[in-house]
């Protein structure tokens, strides 16, 4: 089966809402892309409301990573079909019985945004398979035009990397012509970024956020800004005393996270990894996102940072799943990776939905 194009992704969302009106609603996000596309999500659950306990799953932030949008459409289809027919779901040797499926749909809201960056996907699937950013035209430093912002460097968490990080300490660029890592002209400057912020703002019941990327394979939890530490709350991304030194693994600065939160995010990440292993035997790594490299302005850190930057906002635990081994695998690799993403995210829901989570 070929990869879904963006029109097919939108059609799938429409079909879910029409076929399962009691269980699924289309959510049209407010900000059009530079090429005037509407970004669409689907909310799944018996009770779909702003205050319902919610997990948000996002894919397609990076255009060339073709599997995550297909996997998230597949997850929505599987979940709706299994719940409606009163069955369980199997991915390889990972099995979710019908009561687990029922309790996820009965007791939670799952908001799935399969393709956050449709302009990028269209460009990647038709012009340049290696395209990662969105497609906004921007003036470069020489007065010419370059295209695209890396959405996963554009969120408002330590976005100004030259201020917050040590020189060379972070995977980011302020050159609009950088093919992969341009952070954008301002924090949350991009429609695609603001759509995800809007979801978090409008769904205060959200407790969990998973951004699905490819391809390492790995499951990452907080933080991506710097190495974790649980001893000194003063060492945190909001404290200007540590500007200019973040992102270096070999210094004394570490990003603060409470022991409770660190235990929780580790155990949720491990639950995803364990479910994946049973699909086809692959061994995903688990760890803080910083183990890959330091990131500024990334979605997972932004989601978790919100309750710290603006006290009063609910806490959202943020994750990045890096599925599979290739950006655009062949049919068999695609199918296996889709099953791994579905298994991981349902295991994640099962865990947050269980009484001991
Ligand atoms: Zn990515």
UniProtKB/TrEMBL annotation:
The active site is at residue 322. It comes from Rhizobium mongolense USDA 1844. This is Zinc carboxypeptidase. GO terms for molecular function: metallocarboxypeptidase activity; zinc ion binding. The keyword Cell membrane does not apply. SUPFAM superfamilies: Zn-dependent exopeptidases. The lineage of its organism: Bacteria, Pseudomonadati, Pseudomonadota, Alphaproteobacteria, Hyphomicrobiales. GO terms for biological process: proteolysis. Residues 2-352 form the Peptidase M14 domain. InterPro entries: Peptidase_M14. Pfam families: Peptidase_M14 (PF00246). GO terms for cellular component: extracellular space. Its cofactor is Zn(2+).
């Amino acid at each position: 089966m070929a990869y879904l194009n963006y029109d097919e992704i939108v059609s799938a969302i429409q079909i879910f809402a029409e076929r399962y009106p009691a269980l699924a609603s289309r959510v049209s996000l407010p900000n059009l892309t530079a090429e005037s596309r509407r970004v669409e999500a689907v909310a799944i659950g018996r009770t779909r409301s702003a205050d319902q306990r919610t997990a948000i799953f996002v894919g397609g932030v990076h255009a060339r990573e073709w599997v995550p949008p297909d996997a998230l459409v597949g997850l929505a289809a599987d979940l709706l079909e299994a719940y409606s027919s009163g069955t369980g779901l199997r991915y390889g040797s990972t099995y979710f019985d019908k009561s687990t499926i029922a309790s996820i749909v009965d007791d939670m809201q799952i908001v799935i945004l399969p393709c956050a960056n449709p302009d990028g996907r269209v460009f990647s699937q038709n012009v340049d398979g290696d395209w990662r950013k969105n497609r906004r035209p921007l003036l470069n430093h020489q007065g010419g035009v370059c295209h695209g912002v890396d959405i996963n460097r554009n969120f408002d968490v330590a976005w100004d990397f030259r201020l917050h990080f040590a020189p060379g300490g972070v995977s980011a660029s302020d050159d609009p012509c950088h093919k992969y890592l341009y952070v954008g002209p301002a924090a949350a400057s991009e429609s695609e970024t603001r759509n995800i912020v809007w979801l978090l703002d409008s769904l205060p019941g959200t407790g969990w956020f998973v951004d699905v990327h490819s391809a390492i394979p790995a499951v990452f939890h907080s933080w991506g800004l710097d190495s974790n530490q649980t001893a000194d709350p003063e060492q945190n991304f909001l404290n200007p005393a540590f500007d200019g030194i973040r992102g270096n693994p070999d210094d004394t600065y570490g990003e603060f996270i409470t022991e409770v939160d660190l235990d929780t995010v580790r155990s949720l990440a491990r639950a995803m990894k364990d479910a994946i292993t049973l699909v086809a035997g692959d061994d995903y790594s688990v760890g803080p996102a910083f183990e890959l490299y330091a990131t500024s302005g990334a979605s997972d850190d932004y989601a978790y940072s919100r309750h710290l930057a603006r006290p009063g906002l609910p806490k959202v635990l943020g994750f990045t799943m890096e599925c599979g081994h290739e950006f655009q695998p062949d049919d068999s690799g695609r199918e296996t990776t889709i099953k791994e993403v579905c298994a991981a995210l349902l295991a994640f829901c099962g865990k947050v939905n269980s009484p001991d989570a």
